[in-house]
Write a structure and sequence with these properties.
- It is built from 3 helices and no strands.
- The protein is mostly helical and 92 residues long.
- It has one domain.
- The longest helix is centred in the middle third of the chain and has 23 residues.
- The chain is elongated.
């Protein structure tokens, strides 16, 4: 969903396409012990989005400019966060 060729797409549009997939995975795998994997997946998604932003800037990227594209930047744009969505089944 995030090939390098899509670096010029608005990040809000990319996030709108990614969120249903993240929500679906979160709903399917939320029962059980998936918190470590959810943490890894959240990290992968924001790093991938950050790389697209860096690719878009290309050689015009100023020193330290990429630091502003940390996870909070993408979460403020509406990126769905999987961490904290694990629901442990109740004991019978």
């Amino acid at each position: 969903m995030t090939p390098k060729s899509r670096c010029h797409v608005d990040p809000r549009d990319l996030i709108a396409e990614i969120n249903p997939v993240l929500r679906g995975w979160g709903q399917y795998f939320r029962t059980g012990n998936a918190s470590d994997k959810f943490n890894e997946l959240d990290g992968y998604v924001w790093r991938r989005l950050m790389r697209l932003r860096i690719k878009r800037k290309g050689r015009h990227l100023k020193p330290g400019e990429a630091r502003r594209w940390m996870p909070d930047y993408f979460y403020a744009l509406g990126l769905h966060r999987l961490v904290g969505t694990v629901a442990y089944p109740e004991a019978a």
